[in-house]
Amino acid sequence: MDGLTVLVVEDEFLIALDAQRVIEDAGAGTVLLANSTGDVRKLLADGSRIDASILDLKLGEEDATPLMEEFARRNIPFLVTTGLDASVPAGVRILPKPYRDAEFIDAILELVHRKQ
Amino acid sequence: MTHSDTPARQDFNQILQLLGHAGVTVFSQDVALRYRWIESPPNSWKATDVAGKSDADILPPTAAAVAVAAKREALSSGRPQWADLVVEGDGAPCYFDLFVEPTRDEQGVVSGIIGLALDVSDRRKQAATLEAVARDLSHRSKNLLAVIQSLATQTARAASSPEAFIEEFRGRIQSISRSQDLSIGAKHRGARLAELVETQVVPYVVDPSRRIDFKGIDCLLTANAALHVGLALYELCVAAVRSGALSTPDGKVLFTAELMAPTPSETGQRLQMTWRESGGPHGDDAEGFSKVLLERIVPQSVGGRATLTDTNEGRRYELTISPGEFT
Asked: What residues does each domain of chain B span?
């Protein structure tokens, strides 16, 4: 996890804070939090480097599909955490909520290694 | 007057009419599946002057194929057949349960089919709505479980002992449970603010109406806002009872809720809530997860801001809520 920048996109702040804690405890460099697609677009526009992203599929009322497409375009590996049994594009890893810390970290590491 | 135990001929027309009212279409076709007649056809079928016509003339292609397959099977097997028919029209699709069985002449030779189509569109719509509600509910409850998991972890980190953890964790769970009760109960999906304040403090304060003064707008909070404001109220109340204004008989809390002046950059007005303690001891400063909840988590979750100050008079907590989280 060293030096990695992970973006957590989650609109329930309590869950986002907890995800941040888990990732930081595992040694990540930076954890960015975003709670809406608007927030994420701002971060992307700022040119922030993102090594991997955790995306909550049903961000409040917003649909996350455009965001997934954007991540794919920018070659940012991501996984989807969701309480919804939703359909997700092929090849995208789903981590159902609530998830165990170890599972969470393993999934992020796998994302990053798969890209390399 | 004789009483017959089977319908008389003159009853048949009325029976067919009755069936029509109930959304049942009855029809008859020959062995080549040309229609003889159709009683009470649905509007979505092209059923004028049907004599001699076939399903391809009456139904759209997909539905016709399904109907013909079932009818051919009935003719060849000599047994009743069922099928689900979906008829796409101008508006929403119509759904029918199709039931057909062969007719036989005096020699017992199959002479055609007779059948009925039952309009089940309403039932289908209801089922689809229920499915959508169930999916939404599943999502919400899994999300809630994730929130509770995070709450447990954070509470555990800050707790000084297992006993302290249990007490604080249970208190927070119960706070959420009470907010949920309000939000789900009644017909609105939300909770009234005054009721939220009362239900959050009632377990800890003997005479809440005397100790806590509610002034201002009794607005309707969203379920999300109710959960988080409820958690804040729980934290404030428990601290006040332990060492603040509610730990002595003379201490009081003034709770106000008012709309703020509209800002040019925002549509709608924010709500400002204030919890102001007076007449009692100063109370301990907020610390650990309690502080994080009040100062960061709750305001973030309701799209607002919060300030927690412990003055000489007592604790003062201000929380603003974004327009989208209440009405």
From this structure: 9-119, 124-325
